[in-house]
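WARN retry 2 of 3 for item q-0093 after timeout on previous attempt; input resubmitted unchanged.
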Amino acid sequence: MILIIPVLFILFFLGIPIAYSLGFISIVGIYLTDPEMLMNIPRRIFRGIDNFSLVAVPLFILAGELMTKGGISTRLIRFAQTLVGHLPAGLAMVVIVASMFFSAVSGTAIAAAAAIGGMMIPAMKKEGYDVRFSSTLVATSGTIGPIIPPSITLVLFGVMTSTSIGALFVAGVVPGILMGIGLMIYCYYVGIKHNYKGREKRASFKELIVGLKDAVLALIMPIIIVGGILSGVFTPTESGVIAVVYALLIGLFVYKELKLSELVSIFLSSAKTTAVIVFLIGNAALFTWFLSFHRIPDQLASMLGPFAEHKILLLLFINIILLIAGTFIDTISALTIFTPLFLPLVIAADIDLIHFGVILALNLTIGMVTPPLGVCLFVTSAIAKIRVPDMFKFLVPQILILLAVLVIVTYIPQITLFLPELLSNLTN
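OK item q-0093 returned
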C-alpha cells in the first residue's frame, strides 16, 4: 500500500486539487482493502474537523484581514523607519523590520508581502533601488509571517498533533527573529555594495516615541494573544475572538481607516479561505486514518533504515523532502500531507513535537519563495510589474540565508525550545 504515495504525487503533478487528491487516494485505497469500510468515511472526515481549536483558524484569518485594511501596515512601516531607516540600505531594512512587526499581526506570509510590498516597492524604486532586489526582499521578508506568532500554520500543526499551540507560538519567536537578522545582514552588504543610503540622520528620541505611540496599539495585539494563552486567561480559540474584536475596534474607532462598507467583502473573503482550509483538513483526516490503518508510516520507517534510527539523518531527510514539496505544494496542503506521514517517525526518534512543528513551518514557509509555486514571489512581482525569473539573481542569496536559519534551528533544538521551557518554568 505504500506505493499509493507516489500515485498521490502523480495526481498533484496532473493538476488535481490537493484536497480532492487526498480524498480520492484514501477512498480508492479503502475500497481495495475492505469495501465495507467505505461506510466510515463520512464519520472520519467529520472527526477531522470536529475540533474546537480549529475555530481559531478562521478567526485569525479574519483578524489579519481586518488589521490589513485598518491602517496597521502604514503605522508599522513608519515606526520601522524611525528604528532602522538611517542604516545603509535603510528602506530595505525598514521592509524587514516592518514585515517582522506585521507578521506578529497577520500571521500569514501573503498578507505581509502584499501589505508591505504595496507601499515599500514603489518607495524603494523612487529612491533608486533595483526593483528586482526590492521585490525579492519583500517576498522573503514575508515568509517570517507564519513563524512569528500568531501563526495559522502552527495553529493547524498544534490541532493535528495535539501539541500546545501557546508553546508553538512562543517557539517561533527566536527563529523568526533569526530570519529577520539574517536578511538584514544581507541588506547591509547590498547597501554598501550598491551605495544604497538610508535617511540622513538617525531618528531622534522624540521621533522614536512618536512612532512607537502611533504603532503601539498594533504591536500589543500579539502580546495580548500569546500572553493570554500562556497565562491560561483564555484558550487559543478565545484569543482569536479577542483578536477579531480588537482589530475591529482599532480599525473602526481608533485609526478610522476601516469602513463599515468593507466588512462584507472582508467577511466573505475570510469565509472562502476558511472553507478551503476546512475541506482540506477533512480530507487530510481521512488520509491520516488510511495511513495509520495500513501502517504506512511503519513501512516508510523500515524503508528508510538508518535514516529513521538517527535523529540527524532523519531530520536531514525530512528537511529535504519538505523543501522539495514546498516548491510545488502550498503550505497548508503540505502540512496536512506530511504531518501524519512523518509524525510516527518523529515520535519514535524522540524529537520534541514543538521543535518539529517549527522545523515543519520553516520548511514550508521557505517554499513560499521557491519557484514554481512561490506564491509570495507572484504577489511582489505583480506589484513591481516584473517577471518572476527576473528576480532570481537576488532571490538565491536570500533563500540561502533562510536555509542557513533552517539548519541552525534544526540541529540546535534549544533555539526553539528555550523560550517555551523558560515560560513553562515561570508559570509553574
